[in-house]
Amino acid sequence: MYANMIGRDFILKKVAALILHTIFWVVVLFGYTYFFGYNTENINYVFSFSLFLMPVTIGTTYTVTDILIPKYLIKEKYLLFILYCVYTVIVSAFFIVISFFYGLIFLSSLKYEGMAPMTRSPFFLFIAVYFVVFIASALNLAQHNYKSTTANQELKNKVLEAQLKLKEQELNYLKMQIHPHFLFNTLNTLYGFALKKSEDTPEMILKLSNLLDYLLYQSDKPLVSLQEEINHIKDYVALEKMRFSDVLDISLHFEGVNNNIEVAPMLLIPFVENSFKHGQIVDQKLSIDIRLQCTENQLHFTIKNSVHHMISQSADNNGIGLSNIKKRLSLVYKEDYDLKISNNTHWHIVELTLKNLKTPTYEH
What we know:
By secondary structure, this protein is of the alpha+beta class.
């Protein structure tokens, strides 16, 4: 059935091409009749002469459009193209001259005055024939250029589609790496509470279920609302508060959150995870400060955790999540982000700025 459809389409294209070519040559015939009929009323003579000139015109035209242009000009064989064009002109000129004598001998009975004025000089015959050849060649080149442009555009679209699929696959792979890391940390915390038979265990399970819901059903989306990501952070922090109890000193500041702003899911949580994982207890406190501020179409996220001034957390010690997040940032936001990781004597600091959030570079 598929083969029949292809065969039918091929036949339809051939029929359509034949009709178009027939219409073109009918127009040329009437154009010749009009051109050579200038300043004469002998329509029968003009039509017969035009009809006799048509095979010369058709043969010359198809020689140029079907042989010389595709085989030599398009393939950039310019010397051969010019050489065979000269041959074509010589042969066609010979038949044009025969057409002239046809009009003189058979149509006007060797009476030069009896010929139509526009057929008395081979010069006008050359102009008429080669003008048609030029027009047909120009149309042929325009058609070839259109096909080439269309083919190139289709190829570009296929390449872009393949690149997009690769990016999506890479993003999914990075997310898969983040998920086990996140679950490992959280389940360890829950395990500790269960061993102690803490009354906070049910609350902790509820928080974990919220996180898992976000993890399973929202993180597969290219983008989620910023508020969802913030709620995810709050649930995670709530879990860590239960685990660290009085040891944890954490502050959260979210300003100017716009409900229309979207970010990549699981984008900020690795920074939070690593603050707890690599943060150091100083003066019996693990201090963490999280700040998020939205201004126009930009997001500024800063998180810092306490470190010992003698044993500062290395800026290169970014953890599993952060190494992945750097790749995701480059894929999703390209150049529309700025990430800085630094240390001082008391703090390990991560600063992230996302730009052009209303027109993200990742399309979904």
